[in-house]
Amino acid sequence: MQKIAIILLLTVLVFVAGYSFYDLVHTEIQSGFVQFSIVLIVGFTLIIIIRYITLIYFSILKNVQKTRDDVEPRICTEKVTILVPAFNEEMVIEASIESLLVQTYPYIEVLVIDDGSKDRTYEYAKRFEHVDGYKSVKALTKPNGGKSRALNFGIENCSGELIMVVDADSKLEPDAVELLVQSFTSPEIAAVAGSVSVINRGNTWANLQALEYIEGLNMVRNAQAFLKLVNIIPGPIGMFRRSALEEVGGYDHDTYAEDCDLTLKLIAEGYKIDFEPDAIAYTEAPEDLLDLIKQRYRWTRGILQAIRKHKEYLFNWRKRTSTSFVLWYMLFEAIFWPFMDFWSSVFFIYISATTGLSSLIVYWWAMFTVLDMAGALYCLLVTKEQLKLVFYAILYRLYFIGIINVSKIFATIEEWFNIEMSWGKLERKGRI
Amino acid sequence: MNLIAFLSFTILIITILTLVFGVIAYFLYKAREQKKSTKEISYQDMTKKLGSKYIFLTDTVSLKSQDEES
Fold this sequence. Notes:
Chain A is of the alpha/beta class. Chain A has 13 helices and nine strands.
C-alpha cells in the first residue's frame, strides 16, 4: 500500500511539473516553429510518461499474478542442458561453471562450448568434466565461428528437453534453474528470461548500470511478461523449450543480437515468452565509458538488424498483432526515444541561446528525473535492492543517458548506411 | 538568489558538456577499435612474407631492397 501511495504521489508531481511546463511555454513563446517543436516535445514527454506508468502498472499486475501462482509449485522432472558459449573467457569460466554445479535443480547437463578461444578457456572447462548422478559437465571445442554458431553446435550436441543459455561471464543464484523450469507452465511458453544483476558495483559507471538493469531492463521485462511478450531473452540467463528452438531453426547468424532475433522468431511463431524475476544471474558491467559505448553500440545495431530482419511484421498488425506490437515498441526504444531525447536537448540549448528562456530545461529535466526516481524507487523496493541506488537516477538523467544516446544515434546512422562492424568483445576483469 | 535560474544555467551547461563529451567519447571509442583492429603479425609470418630466414632490424626500404636483390 505504501509503495502504491509513493508512486501515486510521484505521478501527481510529474503531472504538476508537466502542466507548469506547458503553461510556461504557452504564455511566453510566440514563434510558430518553436511552438510546433514544443508541442512535439510535450507529445514525446506524454508518451514517455504513459510508457512509464503502463510498465509499472503491468509490473505490479505481474507481481500480483506471480504471488497468486506461487501457491501451487509444479513438480518438474525435465532435463535441463545449460549451454555456456565461451570465447577467450579464461578469467571467468571457472566461477561460471562452479555456479552451475551448485544449482538446486537436480537434472542438469552443463555443456561448455569453446568457440576457438586463443587462451586456456577450453583447458579450464575440461577440468570440470564429470558425470555425477543426474548432473554432468562436458566441454566441447570448435573452430571460432561466433556465438550463434557455438550455441547451435551446443543444441545439436545436447540431450535436455529444456535448454538454458548463459554467458560465460555470468554467475547464477543457486535456485535460478529451478525457478526458470517452474515457469514453463504451458506448452505455449517457448522461453523464460531471468533477471540480470550487475555484480561489480563500486564505481559510478557500474552503479549507474546496476540501476539501469534493475529499472530499465528487469522491470520492463517483468511488465512485458504480464502479456507474455518479453522481447529479449538476455544473454546471461534464459531458458528455452528445445522443441520450440528446433521449430524456428535455432540461432541465425545474420545479426549481432542473436538473442533478440531468436526471441522475435519465437514470438512470430505465436509462442509466449515469460520472465522469472527471482531467477538471478550476476554479470560484469563495463567499468569504463569506452567499453560501455562499445557494448551499447553493438546492442543498438544488433536490435536494429533484428527489427529490419522481421520488418514485414511491422505493418502486419491484424494477423500478427503481438509481433507487430513488440517490433513497434522496440523501434520506439531503439530509435525514436534516443533521437527525441537528443533533439530535445539541442532544442533547449537553442532556446536558451536565442530567447534566454532557459528555465524550460529545468522543468523538462525535473519531470524525467522524477519519473526515473519513481520507477527506481518502485523497482528497488520490489527487488529489495540497495535503496541508495535511487539517487543514481539523478546522475542517470543528468549525463549518463545523454552520452549513451549519442552513441545509439551514431550506431543507428551507421546501421542505416550498412557500415561494417565487428562483435566488439569486452575484456573481462574477472569480478564474478 | 533565483533557484530556477541557477538550476537552468547548471543543467544547460551539463547538457552541453554531455552532448559534446558523448560525441568525443564515441569517436575515441571508434579510434580505439580502429587501432585494435590493426592486424598483428608474428615473426614467422613476417619471415614468410619477406621470403628470408631472418628479419634484419633496419628500415623497411633497405630490408625490402635486400630481399629483392636476393
